[in-house]
């Protein structure tokens, strides 16, 4: 009798071994929401497909569809998955391999290889799906279809030739799997700890090597190399943002039209927002620091205002707390800090009525984090987005629950296209000290972003990077 070796995902070396039982636990969690389903029911979903770059025969680097990853943890593209609601068995269907491709893609492995690799009950080929389903003759097939609340993109459900002969429910699975992904299991939290720690170490490498005269993209390059070379993170969860000087006020700087291509100058601040990805789970961290390693008085004032806001939110996070309430608290704290710096005047509560905070933080406080950088589940069925400035971009309206991981990312930015109209608006202008604010118009912005786990009694910050002014200056001085 041979003992079966526990299957894991690992990039080798000292990288994390992720047990495949993580995905079995996820399937069991989902099946807990199907106790009232008909006995002969199948959950049926489709994995991601390889995509060609434009019309070429070169493919983009493949990333698994997140819901499929959640349930199966499979690296390969073009797959389908079935979970038997009655027996809890998991069956993977894969593209039938072409023997002629072995010289290009490597040795063809039999289905038994993938059964062991992913700890699945059975592996078959895609062309066997119709016969399998017909022989099972399910009372209902649950497919995955819905609209992502952030992107508005419709996730199209899996299908096969002859599916129209069967009863199909395309709504329940989408709602239930998003509720499951909302909070993380202990095994998932371990993966998140790993990728967040790896991301933090890469951020520290960037901070340690930054100097005036470097290009922004060199910071991006340093991060990408460090997190792959040291932690096996081949990909990142989103396009890296390395905005220096005035570019630090551009929330998603680094896109194709602005590809982190400015030369950093002595006296600049640089905002670095990057996160690694491991086994499709993402980190998402932002640091902001002076390129030369020393804060000016103005830089210190704005930076410490953002840090005060960050720490205030984290101290108030615990189960049952409303995330929109935390966004409002961040806005009030930012206004209080800017008033202390002499940039705002008047009653802070009155400022909230005319959305002064949104002039300086025109984005949401943070979002759920997991298999997607902007992870799913932030808007439960029946809820609507806020319409007011700033909070309209909040990606989560939930009350906090143990096991949630969220980003906390307050910021203060000086954008002329927001402040100049406010100077002309009497309801807002009375709170703005214009002559002092004009001095900051080329300042850019500061954002500080932690990744925070909600615990049964409070919250745990999973990010370990220099944060106080003293910590940043001391760390950068030790280059």
Quick structural gist:
The chain has 479 residues and is α+β, with helices and mostly antiparallel strands. Helix content is 34%, strand content 15%.
Give the SSE layout:
Blueprint: E1 8-9, E2 18-19, H1 21-31, E3 41-46, H2 66-72, E4 80-84, E5 90-94, H3 102-105, H4 111-118, E6 122-125, H5 129-136, E7 140-142, E8 146-147, E9 154-155, E10 168-169, H6 172-182, H7 186-209, H8 216-231, E11 235-236, E12 241-244, E13 269-274, E14 276-278, E15 281-282, E16 285-290, H9 297-316, H10 323-340, H11 348-353, H12 356-360, E17 405-408, E18 411-413, H13 416-423, H14 426-429, H15 434-437, E19 445-447, E20 450-454, E21 459-461, H16 469-477
Parallel strand pairs: 3-7, 5-6, 7-10
Antiparallel strand pairs: 1-2, 3-4, 4-5, 8-9, 11-14, 12-13, 13-16, 14-15, 17-20, 18-19, 20-21
Helix pairs in contact: 1-2, 7-8, 9-10
Describe the overall structure.
By secondary structure, this protein is an alpha+beta fold. The chain is 34% helix and 15% strand. It has helices spanning 21-31, 66-72, 102-105, 111-118, 129-136, 172-182, 186-209, 216-231, 297-316, 323-340, 348-353, 356-360, 416-423, 426-429, 434-437, 469-477, and strands at 8-9, 18-19, 41-46, 80-84, 90-94, 122-125, 140-142, 146-147, 154-155, 168-169, 235-236, 241-244, 269-274, 276-278, 281-282, 285-290, 405-408, 411-413, 445-447, 450-454, 459-461. The strands form 7 sheets. Strands 6-5-4-3-7-10 form a 6-stranded mixed β-sheet. A 3-stranded antiparallel β-sheet has the order 11-14-15. α9 runs antiparallel to α10 (323-340). The chain is globular, with a radius of gyration of 25 Å.
